[in-house]
Amino acid sequence: MHMRTDVYKVVRAVYDNKDEMSQLDEEDRLLVERLEHKLRANGLQLTAEQRTQVERVNKRLVELELEFIYNVDHATNHVMLSRAELDGLPASFFENRRSEFRGLTKKFIVLAQAAEATAVLKHATNEATRKTVYVAQSSHCPKNIALLQEAVHLRLEKAQLFGFATYADYVLNQRMAKTPAAVMELEESLSAKLRPLAEKEMAELCALKRTEVEAAGAVYDGFYEWDYIRYSSQAMANQHRVDMDEIKEYFALDSVLSKVLSLYTTTLGLKVIEASSVLPVWHPSVKTFEVWEADDSAFVGHIYLDLYEREDKYQDIAVWPLRSAVVGEDGTRMTPASAMLASFSEPTETTPVLLTHINVKYLVHALGHAFQNLCSKAKWSQLTAPRDFAEISSQMFVQWVWEPKSLRTLASHYQTGATMPDELIERLVASRNTSRAIRELRQVFRGIYDMDIHRITKAGAIDVVAHYNELSERVALANYGDAHVFKAATFSHIMQGYDCGYYSFMWASVISADMFSARFSGQDSDAEAGAAFRSEILQPGGACDPSASVERFLGRAPSNRAFLQTIGLN
Fold first, then answer.
1. Cβ neighbours of residue 551 under 8 Å, at least 6 residues apart?
2. Count of CB atoms within 10 A of residue 92's CB?
3. Residue scoring higher pLDDT (318 or 60)
4. pLDDT at 118 > cutoff 80
5. C-alpha separations of 143 from 112, 314, 465, 482 in Å
6. How far is residue 250's CA from residue 495's CA, in Å, rounded to a whole number?
7. Given strand 78-82, what is the order of strands in its sheet?
8. Which residues contact 294 (CB under 8 A, 6 or more apart)?
9. From CA 201, how far away is CA 208, in angstroms rounded?
């Protein structure tokens, strides 16, 4: 439909008829406006020759994006390291690990992928080992450099065919942010506020490394990217005595999942039960649930949970709407369905799946997207929430994983069932801000990088790798030393739907912190705040002005004050 000129002519006839548009209700009028924009954005107002160009560009962009993601998902980079080189790693790291003899030395195979690389970067006492693993992790998928560079140029070509100066202008005109200038104002303001604290945190990490290096009789020569995980972990342990392996024992997957669902349903006036009938699923391990109004007055929809790893499965935690809550041709409402995918290891006979605290955060975030789809009352499937608005609800509920009251509900020991002790909860909550300004500054950097490569006005005006490295050093305090790395080649978000959209995470973090502070930490009960959040934010979805929805919920314009206060900044 979105490439049919006859459909565009009909939509445009309604769109241009002011009398007819004025007689439509708000949702119908917004539908016409969205359809007109989408059809126009697909090139239907262009000449036949220009449409052919757009089709060529779109086809090639899909090819580039698919190849980029395939390369990341199927990367097999690894390094070979001896037991001596891996000094500091726990014994469990070596269990069932593949190895080969190189001469007389037994070398262990270490994959340059997130979990294994992180373990080495955290525990290895040998800096040369950490550097080797970091460089391997940060320099794989070299073919992706050319793919990203070409994609950036094609996106610019497409935007200029539609009369926009840049691709960022083309994308953002339909987002909550509206303009690249609004995004950059947010990112640069946060960068300026975060930098002094981030520099202080970095100085503390440098001091930790210097002490360790000099105690070993070596010469301290600086702090590099391969040092960050090790010494930020040390800072957390030193300042708050938080051992994440101990924390995991309180977050068994089945228990956490049940309690997170309960938090959502209690807050939003819903209930979740196992599906009463057998539903078709794509794998035997998929679990299905029904969502109902808490008083049983109406069926709301389905949630599908596909939690465990298997070959060639998507690796991250994510949610896809299988069906939107829309009104059918006969006037009846179709109930929505959402699927959450994860790749947790299968539980053993003796040990359940134990989640890190960060994985609990990701789980809460993902389910926020599921409930956003389930709670929508938009009439038309075309009226989905823009990406920067869609992130707000998920980010807001993530605040739960740092609230002592919520943690007392979520965290219970997998063996004894005992609630996490208050003293441990206090230490975990306090650890939130360990090196946090650095972490947030790195999110700001990624958002600026995404904007920068998509604000060029001339093909060839930017080198995607050189700019990534230079900008990360300037904004995010990164130091690569003499290492040759190209992390831009694995920045999957901007080749997977978040092009000109990575800022959404910081945008949503700021607004959601304000919303949580104002309503869920204020005078309202969680049920009152939840009812308001459901009616003002979740139910309209994209069928209203998102900025107006936020202001109705807050009773004022949003502010960054609450976000900065959570970091310790005024």
1. 557, 558
2. 10
3. 60
4. yes
5. 17, 21, 12, 22
6. 36
7. 78-82, 105-111, 99-102
8. 265, 269, 270, 271
9. 11
* pLDDT tens profile 442-463: 999 999 999 999 999 999 999 9
Q: Using the 8-state DSSP alphabet, how is residue 95 labeled?
A: T
Distance CA 457, CA 155 (A): 11
Q: Letter for the amino acid at 72?
A: V
The number of residues making up the chain comes to 570
- To 10 degrees, the CA torsion angle through 110, 113, 115, 119? 50
Residue 171 contacts by C-beta under 8 Å, 6 or more apart in sequence?
Answer: 159, 454, 499, 500, 501
Run of H or E including 289: strand 287-293
- Quote the tokens at residue 134: 């970091």
**Do the Cβ atoms of 327 and 376 come closer than 8 Å?**
no
Query: Which DSSP string corresponds to 493-560?
Result: GGGTT-TTTTTHHHHHHHHHHHHIIIIISSSS-HHHHHHHHIIIIITTTTSS-HHHHHHHHHTS---S
Q: Token pair of 211, please?
A: 């002490």
Instruction: Compute the distance between CA of residue 428 and CA of residue 356 in angstroms, rounded to an integer.
Output: 12
Residues 383, 29: contact at Cβ < 8 Å?
no
pTM: 0.89
Residue 186 DSSP label: H
Give the torsion sign (CA, 271, 274, 275, 276). Answer: negative
DSSP letters spanning 328-381:
-TTSPBPPPEEEEEEEEPPP-SS---B--HHHHHHHHHHHHHHHHHHH---S-T
Distance set, CA 339 to CA 38, 307, 323, 336, 388 (Å):
26, 10, 10, 10, 21
DSSP category for residue 139: S
Residue 289 phi, psi (nearest 5): -135, 150
Alpha-carbon distance of 52 to 540, in angstroms, equals 36
Angle, CA of 166, 172 and 174, to the nearest 5°: 130
DSSP strand E in 24-164: where?
Answer: 78-82, 99-102, 105-111
- Residue showing tokens 């389905």: 302
The secondary structure of residue 412, as a DSSP letter, is B
Tell me which of 202 and 112 has the higher pLDDT.
202
- The tokens describing 316, both together, are 């991250």
CA-closest candidate to residue 14, choices 46, 39, 43, 41: 39
Is the CB of residue 297 less than 8 Å from the CB of residue 269?
no
The pLDDT tens digits of the residues spanning 11-28 come to 999 999 999 999 999 889
**What's the confidence (pLDDT) of residue 556?**
95
